[in-house]
Amino acid sequence: MEEQIDWDSLTFSFTPTDIMYVAKCKLGEEWQTGEMMPYGDITISPAAGVLNYGQGLFEGMKAQRSVNGGIVLFRPERNAARLITGAERLGMPPVPEEMFLDAVEKVVAANARWVPPTGKGALYVRPVLWGTGPILGVSPAPEYTFMVYVCPVGPYFKGGMHPISLKVSDEFHRACPGGSGGVKAIGNYAPGMMPSKGAKKEGFAEIIYLDAVEHRYIEEVGAANFFCVKDGIVYTPELTGTILPGITRASIIDLARSKGYEVREEKVEIEFVLQADECFCAGTAAVISPIGAICHGDTCTMYCNNEVGPVTGELYDALTGIQTQVEADIFGWIRAVPMPEIEIE
Question: Pairing state of beta strands 233-237 and 263-266?
Fold first, then answer.
């Protein structure tokens, strides 16, 4: 008899599930269809390229229970495309889109019992691509592993959205021109842990990074894309190769424009942001996080009396409505997960 899951106690943290997908590919060869197997620890060489030189990528996605009772994915083709771009940047064999989508759907279907009811959370999907073959010199690994595993997570905002306070970092930068900031490389994330920890000790939720050249333009909020609203116009930093092209970011841009808002993708100065009417950040985990305050040096700005701004709230409701099929999917973003019988080897 399967264990009963207490959906109300779920947080945004790791919980092991039942089944994962694993495929391997040697450098210079084609990917072969992977296998479904019980979730568990893996064996890897101490000389693996991913461990020694950080040759690895990951994606973050959600499968959700729609109000219609089915399980749906949100724009998974964009995740597949981003993994391909990242693989090319890091010298890894790209996983074909069809293989990526098939693996994600199979793992979600095999772990369907872990998908929370509508409104109780989601099944977080983590595809990874690692250089797992042993290598001593700084060169591409001789073998690669593509895996997909999943984890149930609770709502990012329990009890409603809560505006967060952010601190602008003048000392640390997330990425530099010509680097790997525009792909979801594993090495992009560890350097941000220490600045983030320092900001949280000061009472802030996260760091805002400025550009590494002029130190005046907003880049990202920790691991999320940034937006602000001024005089009814929505602004977000343009993609210059140092900013991750978020799927949620792209969706918010399209959604806002469909609602009649002008959206400008351009360099956004921190001084302009401190005069904005409202701000928010966007990513897979929270979808949209309202920003209640931003502090830069001795200057602190509070937005909307530390309440959720009207544009922020409108876009959050519209996007989550599409993701759970409460609202019509006029963009064709939702992909239903087929539920075939899965054979476990």
Answer: parallel
In the structure, what pLDDT confidence band is assigned to residue 160 with cuts at 50, 70 and 90? confident
Average pLDDT over residues 238-257: 97
Question: If you write DSSP's letter for every residue of 222-246 in order, what string do you get?
Answer: TTEEEEEEETTEEEEE---SSS---
Q: In this predicted structure, what is the pLDDT of residue 339?
A: 86
Per-residue pLDDT, averaged over 203-212, amounts to 96
Is the predicted pLDDT of residue 155 greater than 90, yes or no? no
All domains of the chain in start order, with CATH: 7-153 (3.30.470.10), 164-307 (3.20.10.10)
What is the chain's length?
A: 345
How far is CA 57 from its chain centroid?
Answer: 12
Residue 174 burial (C-beta neighbours within 10 Å; 0-12, 13-18, 19+)? buried
Mean pLDDT of the region 135-140: 95
CA 68 to chain CA centroid, Å, is 25
Helix (H) or strand (E) holding 185: none
CB 290 within 8 A of CB 281: no
- The answer, as to whether pTM is greater than 0.85, is yes
- Among residues 62, 106, 167, 184, the one annotated as catalytic is 184
Q: Which residues contact 214 (CB under 8 A, 6 or more apart)?
A: none
Contact 185, 87 (CB under 8 A): no
Residue 197 annotated to the active site: no
pLDDT tens track for 271-312: 999 999 999 999 999 999 999 999 999 999 999 999 999 999
Q: Cα torsion for 11, 17, 251, 322, to the nearest 10°?
A: -80
* Mean pLDDT, rounded, for 58-83: 97
Q: Give the pLDDT confidence score for residue 343 in this predicted structure.
A: 53
Q: Rounded distance, CA 218 to CA 177, Å?
A: 14
Task: Quote the DSSP letter at residue 217.
Answer: B
Q: Which residues of 30-56 are buried (b: 16+ CB within 10 A; e: fewer)?
A: ebeebebeebeeeeeeeebbbbbbbbb
Closest listed residue to residue 303, CA positions, set 156, 157, 158, 166: 166
